[in-house]
Design brief:
The chain is α+β, with helices and mostly antiparallel strands and about 475 residues long. The chain has a single domain (about 5-475), classed as Amidase signature (AS) enzymes (Alpha-Beta Complex). The protein contains 15 helices and 13 strands. It has helices spanning about 5-10, 10-20, 25-45, 50-60, 100-110, 150-160, 175-180, 215-225, 270-285, 300-325, 340-350, 350-370, 400-420, 450-465, 465-475, and strands at about 45-50, 70-75, 115-120, 140, 140-145, 165-170, 185-190, 210-215, 255-260, 290-295, 380, 425-430, 440-445. Strands 6-8-7-12-13-11-9-10 form an 8-stranded mixed β-sheet, with helices on both faces. It has a 3-stranded mixed β-sheet with strand order 1-3-2. A two-stranded antiparallel sheet has the order 4-5. A hairpin with a 2-residue loop joins strand 4 (about 140) and strand 5 (about 140-145). The longest helix has 27 residues, at about 300-325. It is globular and about 60 Å long.
Length: about 475
């Protein structure tokens, strides 16, 4: 297969070339490697490769719905047995995964060929991807801009054509924010939809979820079909969807009632480009026959900020303590970002009462959104408060933790609320601004209702033909760099 053909096809289409005999899995892997070598020196999306292991799998004539399709794992929360996983951190240097995690086993059973790992912010603690351990991942649309985070490496790799879809995680927006920044599609599934086992029962007290970033909505839906569902012993599961997800793409079963919000939950303005993306998505949804009007849930955002700061900090501290026990020594300033140390130190000062109060707060906000979605099918908002910002706008080396956290939260509150509630949400790349940067709009819905997100996102993909806009980037061997 020629590289140009590889770049032009979705994961579903690439798998069909293998089934039909048009191309082999080894040829697809060679294309993925060639594209990595061509563009990754500029964007720094891929931090580690294992081409030999991938070639072995490709040579075994992989079966499954996506048999032979090259794939990348995020360098966080997903284990490939025998390979390192450093969580974007110097503190995990040398750590090797003893076995595949449950979701890794499911990707392999689907026939995917993982060949490496993508860059992540340290422990997933930032909405940018610029860890000291590996350096910043640059946005393919503009190399001076952030790729978002924490799954910025995954989004940049997909946008640049290294793979059609890549694994990612989302604990506060880490799938949707990079998708917004890089002009691709990203969906965070419902709490409990995808497994974290066997070493964990949940991610960040249920704030975090596994799924993928993709260029095509249909690829994302099929990938969720292939990996969703609890593993034996999981603490809970999302509501079952017997009909699956792929059949919903672009096919709403009814006329949706869509609530639209173009400012923050407490009434602050966001960047006009982000408002324009929401208004465009609203117009297109109305043209498709859906009912759209302004409405907002009433949410105590200050309480939400305190609760997520407590829960994320407690989980970060727990991970650091476990790693300290493995190494037999405490962490130092040479091991971690200043912001990561600040998360851990603050968490060490919190009480059991603080922790329980945080859990009660996010559960209460979940009930608020649950009641809101009794009257509305979807909530349409900006994905992020600005288009892709300059690198280090949210600087993990910021010495003042309150300053760092205020920047993080001011940009990401549209995404993080749905991590607290457990509701599914997605970012769709509907708009490009005058500077040529992509701008996403976010749709969210009630727990377990991912089919509605795939339906509306598929409609918008057909109406905007965003994959045509992406194709201009895929045809490039080098990328622009301007402020």
């Amino acid at each position: 297969m020629h590289l140009a053909d590889y770049l032009s096809r979705s994961a579903i289409a690439l798998a069909e070339t293998v089934r039909s005999g048009e191309a082999s899995a080894a040829e697809l892997l060679a294309c993925a490697r060639a594209r990595t070598e061509q563009v990754d020196p500029e964007i720094n999306a891929v931090v580690r490769t294992w081409y030999g292991e991938a070639a072995r799998r490709a040579g075994e004539r992989p079966q499954g719905a996506l048999g032979g399709v090259p794939f990348l794992y995020k360098d966080l929360s997903i284990a490939y047995g025998g390979q390192p996983m450093s969580a974007g951190s110097r503190f995990w240097r040398g750590a090797v995964s003893p076995a595949h995690s449950e979701i890794s086993q499911r990707y392999l059973a689907a026939g995917l060929i993982p060949f490496g790992q993508t860059n992540s912010s340290e422990l997933g603690l930032a909405c940018e991807t610029a860890p000291t351990a590996f350096g910043p991942t640059r946005n393919p649309w503009n190399l001076a801009r952030s790729s978002g985070g924490s799954s910025g490496g995954a989004a940049a790799a997909v946008a640049a054509g290294i793979v059609p879809a890549a694994h990612a995680t989302d604990g506060g927006g880490s799938i949707r924010i990079p998708s917004h920044c890089c002009g691709v599609f990203g969906l965070k599934p419902s709490r409990g939809r995808t497994p974290f086992g066997p070493l964990l029962g949940e991610g960040w007290n249920g704030l975090s979820a596994h799924h993928v970033i993709a260029r095509d909505v249909a690829d994302s839906a099929l990938l969720l079909d292939l990996v969703h569902g609890p593993a034996p012993g999981d603490p809970y599961a999302a509501p079952a969807v017997p009909e699956g997800f792929a059949s919903a793409v672009g096919r709403p079963g009814k006329r949706y009632r869509i609530a639209m919000l173009t400012e923050t939950y407490d009434g602050r303005a966001v960047d006009p480009d982000c408002v324009a993306a929401v208004e465009l998505a609203a117009r297109l949804a109305a043209e498709a026959g859906h009912h759209v009007e302004p409405a907002r849930p009433v949410v105590d955002m200050e309480a939400l900020k305190r609760a997520t700061r407590t829960l994320v900090g407690a989980n970060a501290r727990g991970a650091l303590l476990r790693r300290s026990r493995e190494l037999g020594r405490p962490w130092t300033a040479d091991d971690l970002e200043p912001s990561t140390i600040a998360w851990a130190e603050e968490a060490g000062r919190l009480s059991a009462d603080d922790y329980v109060a945080a859990v009660l707060t996010i559960h209460g906000i979940g009930r608020t959104l649950g009641a809101f979605f009794e009257n509305w099918d979807l909530l349409l908002t900006p994905t992020f408060a600005v288009p892709a910002p300059p690198i280090d706008t949210v600087d993990v080396r910021e010495p003042d933790f309150d300053t760092y956290y205020a920047r993080l939260r001011s940009l990401s509150e549209f995404t993080s609320i749905h991590n607290s509630t457990g509701c599914p949400a997605c970012s769709v790349p509907v708009h490009w601004n005058a500077a040529g940067l992509p701008v996403g709009a976010q749709f969210a819905t009630r727990l377990g209702n991912e089919r509605a997100l795939f339906a509306i996102a598929g409609q918008l993909q057909e109406m905007t033909r965003w994959t045509d806009r992406q194709r201009t980037l895929l045809q490039s061997a080098t990328f622009a760099s301007s402020s």
